[in-house]
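Box 3.1 — From sequence to structure: Iron-binding zinc finger CDGSH type domain-containing protein
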Amino acid sequence: MVKVTISAKENGPLIVETDGKRLCALCRCTASENKPNCDGSHAKSGFKAEASEIKVCD
Ligand code: FES
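Predicted structure (token representation):
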């Protein structure tokens, strides 16, 4: 079974990993021009959010 983890980076995207390998970075600031992927625009937009871990059910 593949282990999936999702972590919200401080002031940045949601990082999705499968078995410890980065699968994608999803935008959560809404500023990306390449949604649903993060394109780094969060840094210029001044997006502020706490880091957190999101539990994915097995
Ligand atoms: S979180 Fe990176 S562009 Fe939105």
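Summary of the box: The chain has a mean pLDDT of 95.
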